[in-house]
Amino acid sequence: MQQATQTLPEHPAPPASEGSGFLPTIDIPTYTPHQIKIIRGTYKAMATIGTQQLSLRRIAKELDVSPALIAYHFGTRDALIMETMRWALAGTVRRIARKVDCIKDARAAFSALMDGVFVGAQQSRDFHLIYLDLVQYSTREATFVELSDLLRDHIDGTYATVIRQGVEAGIFQVDNLTHAAKRARAVVEGSFIQWLQDKDWEQSYPALRDDCETALLKLFSP
User: Fold this and answer.
1) What is the pLDDT of residues 24-64, one digit of tens each?
2) Which residue from 82, 91, 160, 163 lies 20 to 30 Å from 215 (Cα-Cα)?
3) CATH code for the structural domain at 33-220
4) Over the stretch 83-119, which tens digit does the pLDDT of each residue have?
5) What one-character DSSP code corresponds to residue 72?
6) Which candidate, 192, 185, 186, places its Cα nearest to that of 125?
7) Secondary structure of residue 19 in the 3-state scheme
8) CB 126 within 8 A of CB 47
9) Residue ranges of the domains in the chain?
10) Residue 55, CB-side half-sphere exposure with 13 Å CA sphere
11) 123: how many CB neighbours lie within 10 A of its CB?
């Protein structure tokens, strides 16, 4: 199977001045160029090799740097994994928020939300493989629970905002915004998990987005 070129999340920029600011921000330290190189390389390795299989030595080999250099910048393997996940989640949250922020038309906001979630087959695959690692880590390691909670709060908050716009415009009908947001995320995340197991994942990606959009519109239509 031909592999697509990987597209990594951009490093999150400082919060923009425009927008409604309906979501909290994820605190991201200011990284040095060396740290950014290590984080981006670690992200790629986590997506292609798997987090459980990575050691500082393995990461160093993938990046062609010394393990001592990685330890100097991040200390432990878990600290590096934590920062890499934080960096990736922040980029994803900000991208989705930028897509939907300040869009007043309810149907356009919903389409923008779908655009923010479905950004390309390889990028979606990489992110969700790492996201599944985060879910696993957060059930066992307390230090990772914060990231899992932040992502859930951000994504649920975005879905709730867009669904509320649809309710106010008369195109959606829901009894409880919180429950509706959780159901929307469940549809999308469940679809991604099934898609990850598809041997033709690159070819089936456009249909995945269409199916999710259709399912959500049907789910919340009056």
Assistant:
1) 556 667 888 889 999 999 999 999 998 888 888 999 998 89
2) 91
3) 1.10.357.10
4) 898 888 888 888 888 888 888 899 999 999 999 999 9
5) H
6) 192
7) coil
8) yes
9) 33-220
10) 4
11) 18
